[in-house]
Amino acid sequence: MEKIELTCIGCPMGCPLVVEMENGAVSKVTGNTCPRGDAYGRKEVTNPTRIVTSTVRVEGGTLPVVSCKTRTDIPKGKIFDVVRALKTVTVPAPVTIGQVLVDNVADTGVEIIATKNVGVKV
Length: 122
Fold this sequence. Notes:
Blueprint: E1 2-7, E2 16-22, E3 25-30, H1 35-46, E4 49-50, E5 53-59, E6 65-70, E7 74-75, H2 79-86, E8 90-92, E9 100-102, E10 112-114
Parallel strand pairs: 5-8
Antiparallel strand pairs: 1-2, 2-3, 4-7, 5-6, 6-10, 9-10
């Protein structure tokens, strides 16, 4: 049996988790004080994912860049591919919160959306 120690990020408590694995499958999660800890521990050792936040360039905007994020979580191993892809993106102003800036970023099937409004430079 393999034991993996993690710190839960499912809520502000930051519980110290111990995930027990048998034959490549999670057999038990301990240390969590809420159900989110159990779910986080199981997912983190079998299929870790993350939301990526970044910025992309804006052409003709009141700001030179707009903050953005992945609409949903992506596989942890694709984080650097997403960041590299965003370095090549420039969007025209205006930009609105929730606007899709990139479809299927880095072949993840996930959209990049704006998290800020950027107006047109006058």
